[in-house]
Prior knowledge:
Elements: H1 8-15, E1 24-29, E2 32-37, H2 44-50, E3 58-62, E4 65-68, H3 69-85, E5 93-97, H4 102-113, E6 117-120, H5 127-137, E7 141-145, H6 146-152, E8 164-168, E9 186-189, H7 190-194, E10 213-218, E11 228-232, H8 233-254, E12 269-272, H9 279-292, E13 295-298, H10 304-314, E14 318-321, H11 323-331, E15 345-349, H12 356-364, E16 369-376, E17 381-387, H13 388-393, E18 399-400, E19 406-410, E20 431-436, H14 448-454, E21 455-456, E22 459-468, E23 473-479, E24 484-486, E25 489-491, H15 493-501, E26 506-516, E27 520-529, H16 537-545, E28 556-559, H17 574-583
Parallel strand pairs: 3-13, 5-6, 5-7, 7-8, 8-9, 12-13, 14-15, 15-16, 27-28
Antiparallel strand pairs: 1-2, 3-4, 10-11, 16-17, 18-23, 19-20, 20-22, 21-22, 22-23, 24-25, 26-27
Helix pairs in contact: 1-8, 2-9, 3-4, 5-6, 8-9, 11-12
Amino acid sequence: MSDTPMTIQEATAQMTAPGQMFEMDVAEIRGISYRVWKHAPANLKQVLDLSLNHADKDFLVYEDERYTFAEHYRIAATLAHRLRAMGVDNGDRVAVAARNLPEWVFTFWGTIAAGGISVPLNAWWTGEELAYGLSDSGTVIAVVDEDRLARIRPHLDELEYLREIIVISEDRGRRPELGEQHHRINIRAFEDVLGDVAEDALPPVVDIPGDDDATIFYTSGTTGRPKGAVGTHRNAVTNLMNLFFSGQRGTVRFGGGNVDNEGASIQNSYLLNIPLFHATGCLAVMITNTASGGKLVMMHHFDAGKALAIIEKERITTFGGVPTIAMQILDHPDFDSFDTSSVRSVSYGGAPSPPDLVRRIREAFPLGQPGNGYGLTETSAAVALNGGPDYVAKPASCGPALPINDVAIVPEDFNGEEPTDDLPKGPDVTGELWIKGPNVVRGYWNKPVESAKAFTKGWLHSGDVARIDEEGFIFIVDRAKDMIIRGGENVYSVEVEAALFEHPDVADCAVIGIPHPVLGEEVGAVIVRRPGRDVDAEELKHHVGTKLARFSVPAHIYFRDEPLPRNPAGKVLKRQLREEIIDN
């Protein structure tokens, strides 16, 4: 390899050339032309079939349970037949509402192999919210754990479409408690529905066109009711190819990869510490490892100490999720007591990350490469990825857009349906980030008005304020709704948070707008100190003042002993924080 690595543009051109694995083509989807991966699997059922290439390797690990790829495939195939026998036809919705358990993965792939639409519901939701998701999606069969069953039981009479509830036990040593039967909805144990699994079980023969619906993921719902983003098989396999492409491009440019000192391949071992009901957990982690032969090690709930023990025991190569998970592991007082030498990748997204985290990861994991990324539920996960030396060079960026994606910076007052050539351009131009590509979902389930606002001519209006530098690297400046307007000056909370994160005593932070009678809003910051540190407000204000304009310096700083409240995607619940502070 040359001492000077290929540029991103050179590597992309080489890898996407005619005849190469990542060759691109043009396809018309719902009347709109897109760049697509020419050699992508036709649908998710083909991805499931690919997993048999790794038949004897461990695929799922949960506490004392282990399932090989072959065992998982036979279970998913058998469940698909059971679902068809229960009346699930192409396009019928099958929901799963449970913690990260092996049955969650079985259910997803069984639903896909049956031709159904998988509806992952937020396991943190209340009973009323779960009932909304089940009703809104028109779910006919729901797979739930006992806790979720208890939450939805008072709402069963409202669920007119629901016919069956299949129950998983979190206590792995006993059958689930089913409680009273409902007069209309059948409630059964998962193991009874699955029954015997033949060693040669194959999925039912079902025709699944690539542009058929495959998933409905509900958005975080920070305002109003959550919306169900409808993803197709093409959306999901595009994301799979995006991740494969990005990883291979990094290897082409910088070397590395999952190989030992003698060049032999190492199985990727992924510590799954983010929810499967989130697009990242399911589409970016679970599906990718299913296809590539990676081992998924699941935790009942995240605990940094337990995570370190699992890293050592299972020889974890990859972990991440959101930046706070990486920071909690690095900050754990027993970090040096565990063997973490297997770690080769620490990747995260979904929330701002302190630039200093890059340095800390490189110091803590000699073989580890930090990585960041950007994506949304509406983009089926990844739009841009930044890793390795690129991330070290530009830690504030989420990377360049993937080759099949178009991105544009659009002014707030732009009224067109697609970006025009005369829009302002340049590394200093900020505006709303619009995204187009075959990974962008087709819209929101049964919400035509909301869909028409968010999607125009194939372009998703992300709601994120961004800029794009001269090399194509995207910098997310802020969520449009999180921007603070102080006396007519726009304060981007992400920039203030990034500055605060650079202080060595700050473990976590969130910047919010505090009402002011004259200025409209002032900048407020909620701070979680690192263990044993005692930084005060004045020092933090001075610190930010050395990096940003005076109007961006927090006027109010609040210290908090407990972790910041976050949704399952890892994003801070700023509205909740704001209400807590204003009420007090």
